[in-house]
Write a structure and sequence with these properties.
Elements: H1 3-16, H2 21-29, E1 36-37, E2 40-41, H3 45-68, H4 74-86, H5 92-109, H6 114-132, H7 153-162, H8 171-199
Antiparallel strand pairs: 1-2
Helix pairs in contact: 1-8, 3-4, 3-6, 3-7, 3-8, 4-5, 4-6, 5-6, 6-7, 7-8
Length: 201
């Protein structure tokens, strides 16, 4: 990813207050093509960088989980499992099992606390990225037209931080979403780029 692209995206954010679905596809695509074998992503520096990007989002929103379930560390542990998988310390089947458990947990908690429960979904998405490097859904250019299960980790992060989807957000919530996207471009993406650079050495 070039610094020019990052600067361009930051400028766009100043104009529109959010990173749209097509723009986020640009961000992910800029890390480069990831090879797959039988639908599973081949571990590479590019894959590690994308997992790092998703993991940073989850780390940012973990406090929202902790306020509701302070003694439940399952979302945070998923980040460790994903890293262990990338380091060939656990096999893909083991990661898939843990991922499925976390998606189920998120579903079970949905009625108790809508957005905090989705921290578990975002953490499970980290495992999904590690296993499959799933691209951001491309059958629509607007999250309202996507199935909720296809919302990517970053979009979930913005919703969780603000407590709302963009199309229902009030002024305060929109401000929080803008702040999240600014953090994403100014902190998370550069950190993932740095990870890619280090992995390529």
């Amino acid at each position: 990813m070039t610094s020019e692209l990052l600067q361009s995206l930051t400028s766009q954010l100043a104009e529109v207050d959010a990173l749209s679905l097509p723009i986020r596809r640009q961000v992910v695509a800029a890390f480069g093509h990831i090879e797959k074998v039988e639908k599973r992503a081949v571990v590479s520096p590019k894959l590690r960088a994308l997992v790092e990007l998703d993991s940073l989002v989850v780390k940012k929103i973990l406090p929202c989980w902790g306020k509701n379930w302070p003694d439940d560390g399952r979302p945070e542990r998923m980040l460790d499992y994903a890293q262990q998988y990338l380091d060939d310390q656990i096999n893909p089947n083991a990661l898939r099992v843990e991922m499925g458990r976390l998606y189920t947990l998120a579903d079970n908690l949905l009625e108790d606390a809508l957005w905090p429960s989705q921290v578990a979904t975002a953490a499970a998405h980290v495992a999904r990225t590690a296993l499959y490097a799933d691209p951001i859904a491309d059958y629509a250019d607007d999250e309202k037209k996507l199935d909720a299960e296809d919302w990517d980790t970053a979009f979930l992060g913005a919703c969780i931080e603000s407590g709302s989807v963009p199309w229902k957000a009030n002024e305060t919530q929109r401000k929080k979403q803008t702040e999240f996207w600014a953090w994403y471009l100014e902190t998370a993406v550069p950190a993932a780029i740095q990870r890619l650079s280090e992995e390529n050495k």
